[in-house]
Queue: 3 jobs
Job 1
Amino acid sequence: MATKKPSAGAQAGKKTSGMNVDTALVRELAELLNETGLTEIEVEDDDRKIRVSRSGGMVAAAPGFAAPTAAPAPAAAPAPAPAPATAEEAPADNADALKSPMVGTVYLAPEPGAANFVKVGDSVSEGDTLLIVEAMKVMNPITADKSGTVKSILVENAQPVEFDQPLVVIG
């Protein structure tokens, strides 16, 4: 707990094992953040250093408060659940399926609202673009590794994909 008045040992110049936090200074720094629009401020003097941050709270005093703000992001993770169900429908066909060369998000069309690159039953030639995998804001075309007919598309549009995940079966 924070105390404002130093102990008798600290007044005599001796170090104490307790932590003395100037709560008035912390509040003043927090108000300064609000007034100036800064996201972080750090103040240091002879024997102490105080850092107050908007994004993570007070770093030394409340590291646990940063976790709840990050928790909602993984809540979007259930979206990949349909992927395994789709991939398991034809496990025997997946052995020779074209696989993702990277982790990313797969897109079946060149842009939103446009027709898909290919659909089941289409005839493709080696080198034809089948879909796009976006990784780190870069759109990577995934091309057919052989000529043939598209037997199945094992992913949905805008679905996250893993490295080596089956994407398309060409027969």
Job 2
Amino acid sequence: MLKDLVKKWFEKRKVTDDYVETLTIKVWNVVSGPYLREEVDDPNVPEELGCMLVCLIEVDGELTNKEYWFSTLKDANIWVDHFKTKITPLEVKYE
């Protein structure tokens, strides 16, 4: 999942608790979805998340597909609608 990718990024840079760096992930496109929670066979997804998109993301210059979960279909469709009309990436910051 995305959490593992972020962890790998921090480990690669030997980031410690004393040093916090901001990681920015660029979301370039929605590859597939939206998928409702009932359509995804993953018991580890928290109850409050109801919709998932598979997105093409860039982390540290590397492209990969990752799942993004949203509370509602309406929230996920904000990203879907963005990429219907734009080619600019969305930026997600983790601190």
Job 3
Amino acid sequence: MITPEQVIAEARSWIGTPYHHMGYVKGPNGGVDCGMIVIGVYSSVGFFDFFDPRPYPRQFHLHQQQEWYKNIVEDFCTEEDAPVPGGMALWKVGRIFSHGSIVTEWPRVVHAIASSDIVYEENNVLMTSLRNQEVKFYNPWKVPSK
């Protein structure tokens, strides 16, 4: 069985990777964004097989109403009222839920965010760009019934 510790260790292994829109290469010479890091972490630990949703526009959250990122998440994870270690936090930025992260110990998350130019772990209460945004929590250990 996949443990929260495995998920968190994999998420932390991406720390220091530069932010790169649609990137999916771990390490200081690579690059990743907030969507691909979540796919990378969860597929690496075995929650699901890797899949590639690219290409997608850099500012899709500003110009669309379709919740395509949230819909992908909800294919693999169940929404919860509270965060779980190793689970996902998904923020509403712009018009739709469009910024994903891996919860380490709430309110700490590992994420790739364009404004910081790098993957890092932080306390989201201190994040000026996200702290007032609506957030949903997802549990990858609970697969939605279809």
